[in-house]
Description:
Blueprint: E1 3-8, H1 11-22, E2 28-30, H2 36-44, H3 47-59, E3 63-68, H4 76-87, E4 92-96, H5 114-119, E5 127-128, H6 137-165
Amino acid sequence: MRKPVFLSFCYSDDVTRIQQIRNMGMVIDGQPLLSPNDFETIKKKGDTAIQNWIDEQLKYKQCVIVLIGENTANRPWVQYEIQKAKQMNKPMFGIYIHNLKDINGHYSKKGANPFDKVFGTSHSYKCIDPSHIEYDGCRAYNIIQKNIESWINETIVIHNFLNNYN
Length: 166
């Protein structure tokens, strides 16, 4: 069964990496991936229109995955998405994607933890970083494809347990 998941990421740097994840044929059902033209149309309407789009996309999602590239943590809209997801009490986690190749076959540098950027270091949001394993882009792809469903499920279960426990 496909899980409705919100993907948060830096569009300009990582859109081809995100397309790889969305096209893995797995159990995630993400929000529509806006084209640059569609985003520009929303952006022209102002920050409130962008916030409304994000809020609407988050509303019915079971989980938020922050796909962490080199500049993700510094992107204002990613920071907004993280803050809004917390406000909406959505389960969240991050996956570092710097070892997936972009459209030109390049990797990027590992980015900062966006949850640290938003909340400081006093948070419990997990960021999965398979870089302790030596691998190339194909292996990184395979690790994400093999494990993303269990990462989503684990995040949701832990989140629900903690909400019921507190």
